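FW: tagging you since you asked about this chain on Friday. Here's the raw sequence from the shared folder, copied in full. Didn't touch anything.
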Amino acid sequence: MVAPAIVELKRSMPKLRIDWHTTLMSDMPLEVPSKAVDLSVTSTPIEHEYLEVAPFMRGRMMCVLPAKHPLAAKERIALADLKTEPMILFRRDIPFGTAIVRACQQAAVELTSVVDVTRADQALALVQGGLGLTIVDEFAAGGIDCAVRPLVEELEMIPTFVYSKFSPPPRGAMLLMEAVYHRAEQLGRQVGNLRASGRASRE
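HL: got it, structure written out here
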């Protein structure tokens, strides 16, 4: 979602300066209040007393597997289908890992992790290398040379904009928020009201 929005922005405003990097969600509550960044975009909501968190769309977790894997023939994959498969899973102490563990508990399924990861790109690289299957967010899975299937169990994710409660996002950050939200609208997945969030941050 972010990369296409940046491309759109830079094409319309080539002089706009954007410094984009990725980080762990556990580090985000420190980066925004310290002004190391003006804006964070998270895959799931975070909580911090000094942060404003504005949900902007709905997403879901997907199963990613080698294209020739037998399960790729299914339109949807159940967690129970994965219990005998070698899995590359998020660590249990980060939000995605916690969500997957909770879903497995509800489905009475135990998955076997051959490698624990902290980032989706790590998991996807290992799937491409033939090590196993993974469950990642649908945005990370886009464009990868593997089979991507929705899960029978709905693992919903709510991406958010995160910025300081004490100072409004600067103009460049607001423009990026608008561009990302516009893409969410194009997909019919938007939630909340970006304009209302922008007004609240300036009041």
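FW: Helices lie at 2-12, 28-31, 95-106, 120-128, 138-141, 171-187, 194-202.
HL: agreed, and Residues 102 and 155 are 10 Å apart (CA to CA).
FW: great, closing this out.
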